[in-house]
């Protein structure tokens, strides 16, 4: 199986498409119409937005916002190859431009083919300042068949083209494509890239090429590119590539994204993961992140915590990248993150290679495209057929992988019966069984399964696996500091622990304890935040909640959290659990109203931006350590341990602390969320406004110049 290609393959394919395209003849404008060229520039987060700049008379300039309208914005966007404008922005939203202000008091009807046809004061006639530069946001949809035609003579303009993606697994070979045509056609210009462009259309045009049919490129050949797969698409160790693809501790990761190649940006510093503030966050920095993680360039640079809010420190602020950096940790940044909250967490959406994952999986019979019976394209008797997946052991984690593979976001529910979704009768047979996923797989085929040795006693059909997907999901995170600061020991008499004993909140030795004996309880408070994009709700409906007579309350989730005391080798020495008898909004961030309250059999849940606090003094908010001998242990809390409710990120559902017990007192320290990163031989430090691996020197990078120099500085 040849290794998949990265975005470079797409770009090379684009060059091939250019070579196969006929040059587009210029559309004639009325005589006397000024010849101009447009581009979108400035501090922008997306390639289809920015400050409007006009190239006229050999010089780039801007457009004043006086009298500008959505009609003028539509003309600008269509001239750049987009279908229409979404909005326009006055007052230099994308930063102040430089040079001349070419147009002022622009009046367009919206039918003009170029901005030069709109009425205005005339080129260069303006009383505006650059604080009034106008910007536009165009639709992402491109005009079908749009091709860029240069109207300039100095060859410094940017390319704007229609991007066409094709799926190739290994090499992009123009020779193979061109061999199907008798006449070879070439793009009429060379392309000059510096290497830090977010996409090929950001490169500048080179010299003009004299088009002479097959003789155009007598001294050379059409471009051929060999692509190397990124980290996410690299061959696994099982395929014999363990030496070539040595797994290293990543310094940057994405969390909370619905699909492959998107998420909140998190950075590792001093052994702790933290977020990036969105001040000055742009496509250049986002592209560095995407390339570092093995994707292509950035599609979007997202701000304002749009893909969920993180926890812990904000490691980087005002990040400035030149685009040449191999890692975001090499970019310059402001070490002072004061004033940055997690509401400003930066995120990215990357361009992802077209791997064809969606072609081997489908949902059938659902009421909408986001739900249905899972059907897989598999080989059977020498041919490819559609079939179902056995629902034995089918759960939320497996459903999460299905939704991700189809690009439908997060799993909302996993179904083990799908009789209410009548799928294709010819696809009723089971073709996949024993599916077990870890949740990190990109396709269902990458999960563990029985292969050709199918084992599904109930069969497919009405018992086939199904899913429902959602574009948003909750994300529960425990506040580790609250646990660390509220821990204490209490000796409590057995006669007042009868209800807790009925709910199995005590260790097994309590069954033989007398009512006059005491139990030693490790008590603590837990504060659980919902940092996702939708509310956390119990899976069970209101009418199916379980009533507990002793405590006289309902359990909306029979097991909401697990509490464990572990030895250093992972063996449980004591354990506890907590049912969600009251899942409500204890407190919310400023401006957010509480929606869930347990009183009077009310609705239970946790609103986005709110948290639920289980105080240390309520029943079952403990671990029974009566039988534990003194020593050093690991204290662990796991939220939503059975994955009953789908979340955007399960890795932050686990909190661990170091714990020391001397038989009389207990100390809780070094609490952290998720897996603590192990860095061998390296220390992630901050050096001259960069994050760097010291061994034993800091890497200093000068930004905003093409020839970046590296210097060794004594640490």
The helix content is under 10%
How much of the sequence is in beta strands? 25-35%
Distance between the termini: 45 Å
Shape: globular
Which regions contain 5 or more consecutive residues with pLDDT less than 50?
1-6, 15-26, 153-182, 236-246, 678-715
Secondary structure class reads: mainly beta
Roughly how many Å is the radius of gyration? 30 Å
The total of helices stands at: 7
Please give the largest β-sheet: 7 strands, mixed
DSSP, total strands: 41
Mean pLDDT: 79
Task: Explain the overall architecture.
There is one protein chain. The chain is built from seven helices and 41 strands. It has 715 residues and is mainly β. Strands 11, 12, 13, 14, 15, 16 and 17 form a seven-stranded mixed beta sheet that branches. It is globular.
């Amino acid at each position: 199986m040849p290794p998949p290609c990265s975005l470079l393959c797409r770009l090379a394919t684009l060059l091939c498409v250019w070579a196969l395209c006929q040059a587009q003849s210029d559309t004639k404008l009325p005589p006397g119409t000024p010849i101009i060229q447009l581009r979108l520039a400035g501090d922008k987060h997306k390639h289809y937005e920015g400050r409007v700049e006009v190239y006229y008379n050999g010089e780039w300039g801007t457009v004043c916002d006086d009298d500008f309208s959505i009609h003028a914005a539509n003309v600008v966007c269509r001239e750049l190859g987009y279908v229409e404008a979404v909005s326009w922005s006055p007052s230099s939203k994308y930063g102040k431009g430089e040079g001349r202000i070419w147009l002022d008091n622009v009046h367009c009807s919206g039918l003009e083919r170029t901005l030069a046809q709109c009425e205005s004061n005339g080129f260069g006639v303006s009383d505006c300042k650059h604080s009034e530069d106008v910007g536009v946001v165009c639709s992402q949809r491109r005009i079908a068949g749009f091709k860029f035609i240069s109207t300039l003579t100095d060859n410094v303009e940017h390319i704007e083209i229609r991007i066409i993606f094709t799926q190739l697994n290994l090499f992009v070979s123009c020779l193979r494509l061109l061999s199907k045509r008798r006449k070879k056609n070439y793009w009429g210009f060379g392309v000059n890239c510096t290497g830090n462009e977010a996409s090929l259309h950001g490169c500048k045009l080179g010299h003009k090429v004299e088009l002479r049919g097959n003789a155009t490129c007598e001294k050379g050949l059409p471009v051929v590119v060999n692509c190397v797969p990124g980290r996410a698409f690299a061959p696994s160790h099982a395929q014999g590539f363990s030496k070539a693809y040595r797994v290293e501790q990543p310094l940057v990761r994405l969390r909370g994204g619905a699909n492959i190649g998107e998420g909140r940006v998190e950075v590792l510093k001093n052994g702790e993961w933290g977020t990036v503030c969105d001040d000055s966050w742009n496509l250049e920095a986002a592209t560095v992140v995407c390339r570092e993680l093995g994707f292509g360039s950035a599609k979007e640079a997202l701000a304002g915590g749009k893909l969920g809010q993180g926890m812990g420190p904000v490691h980087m602020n005002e990040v400035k990248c030149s685009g040449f950096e191999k890692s975001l940790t090499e970019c310059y940044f402001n070490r002072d993150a004061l004033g940055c909250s997690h509401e400003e967490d930066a995120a990215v959406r990357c361009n992802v290679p077209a791997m064809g994952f969606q072609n081997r999986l489908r949902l059938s019979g659902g009421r909408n495209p986001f739900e249905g019976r899972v059907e897989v394209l598999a080989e059977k008797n020498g041919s490819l057929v559609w079939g179902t997946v056995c629902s034995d052991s089918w759960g939320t984690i497996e459903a999460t992988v299905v939704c991700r593979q189809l690009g439908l976001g997060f799993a909302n529910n996993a179904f083990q019966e799908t009789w209410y979704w009548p799928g294709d009768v010819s696809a009723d047979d089971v073709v996949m069984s024993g599916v077990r996923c870890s949740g990190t797989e990109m396709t269902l085929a990458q999960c563990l399964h029985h292969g050709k040795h199918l084992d599904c006693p109930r069969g497919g059909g009405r018992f086939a696996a199904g899913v429902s997907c959602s574009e948003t999901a909750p994300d529960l995170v425990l506040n580790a500091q609250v646990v660390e600061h509220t821990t204490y020991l209490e000796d409590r008499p057995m006669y007042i622990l009868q209800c807790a004993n009925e709910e199995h909140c005590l260790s097994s030795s309590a069954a033989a304890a007398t009512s006059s004996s005491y139990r030693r309880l490790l008590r603590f408070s837990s504060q659980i935040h919902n940092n996702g994009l939708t509310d956390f709700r119990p899976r069970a409906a209101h009418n199916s909640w379980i009533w507990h007579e002793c405590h006289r309350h309902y359990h909306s989730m029979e097991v909401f959290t697990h509490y464990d005391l572990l030895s250093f080798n992972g063996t449980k020495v004591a354990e506890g659990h907590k049912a969600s008898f009251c899942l409500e909004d204890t407190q919310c961030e400023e401006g957010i109203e509480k929606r869930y309250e347990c009183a009077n059999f009310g609705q239970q849940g946790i609103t986005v931006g709110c948290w639920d606090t289980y105080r240390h003094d309520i029943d079952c908010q403990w671990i029974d350590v009566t039988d534990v001998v003194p020593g050093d242990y690991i204290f662990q809390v796991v939220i939503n341990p059975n994955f009953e409710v789908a979340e955007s990120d399960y890795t932050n559902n686990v909190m661990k602390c170091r714990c020391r017990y001397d038989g009389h007192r207990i100390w809780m320290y070094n609490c952290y969320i998720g897996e603590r990163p192990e860095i061998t031989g390296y220390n992630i430090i901050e050096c001259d406004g960069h994050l760097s691996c010291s061994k034993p020197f800091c890497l200093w990078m000068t930004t905003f110049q093409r020839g970046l120099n590296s210097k060794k500085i004594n640490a």
